[in-house]
Amino acid sequence: MNKLTTQDAPLVFGPPDHGAITLAFYKGRGHLFDRLVRFATRSPYSHVELIVDAPAGPQERPFTASAVSASPRDGGVRQKRITFDPRHWNYITLPDWPYAPRDRILLDARKQAGFGYDYAGIIFTFAIPLRREASGRYFCSELIGEALRLPEPHTLAPGDLHHWVLAVSEAYAEGCVQDAPCCAAALNKSIQAVDEWDRNGRHGNPADEVRIALHEARTACAVSV
To answer: Which is more confidently placed, 213 or 58?
Structure first.
């Protein structure tokens, strides 16, 4: 299993048949709706795409790929080809994901194609914090969060989803690569840390708590072996 990559490291996309999942988070200025989402969610990200056919190798220049998401511009859930420019997008590649295989994640996202955009979920979760959703409709991070098997995906803004995948996948990859016998303990600890962050109102960055939990899990495992 490979270490996950982020925009802060050399950008490496795993070929589709290697089971890698690539998410693209939009940080560009965008339209008024993008700015409203960033303001309401207090995040640099206003949108997220699940890239279907990310090219292999470092991608430091714009590239075109097929992606699945839900967009108000397209009226809801769709798959289409998009040109991704690293000046406007940050990427996270998930070499592995603990909750579901890549093919299943893509299938679950694609099968919602044609469903409308969840404006009610946007308004009644982020503008008015009632955590409500419209049945049969999705916004971008809700669709992808559901495909990734995350709890309460209708409460996840793009920035929340970024925290989730970065924290959980980092702990999972680090635990399994560097100390394979402690993989299960490290993964469980990381999930517990993100769950606690979720229950406490999602303040701060869960990656810090995950790293502490990962260290504790690996230390306890080493002592017990």
So the answer is: 213
Distance separating alpha carbons of residues 25 and 162, to the nearest angstrom: 8
Please indicate whether residue 154 or residue 167 has the higher confidence score (pLDDT). Answer: 154
In Å, the largest CA–CA distance within the chain is 56
Residue ranges of domains in the chain = 12-158
Residues 134 and 143: their CA atoms lie apart, in Å, by 12
DSSP letter for each residue of 181-222:
GGHHHHHHHHHHHHHHHHHTT--S-HHHHHHHHHHHHHHHHH
Q: Are residues 126 and 140 in contact, defined by beta-carbon separation less than 8 angstroms?
A: no
Highest mean pLDDT among 3-7, 9-13, 113-117, 163-167: 113-117
How many CB atoms lie under 10 A from the CB of residue 86? 16
**Contact yes or no for 37/159 (Cβ under 8 A):** no
- CA 118: distance to chain centroid? 18
Partners of 23 in the β-ladder: 50, 92
Residue 60 CA to residue 13 CA, distance in Å, equals 11
Q: Is the dihedral of CA 176, 182, 188, 191 positive or negative?
A: negative
38-58 pLDDT tens trace: 998 888 999 999 999 877 655
| Spatial separation of the C-alpha atoms in residues 107 and 79, rounded to whole Å | 12
Q: Specify the CATH number of the domain 12-158.
A: 3.90.1720
pTM for the structure as a whole: 0.77
Say if CB 148 and CB 89 are below 8 A apart.
no
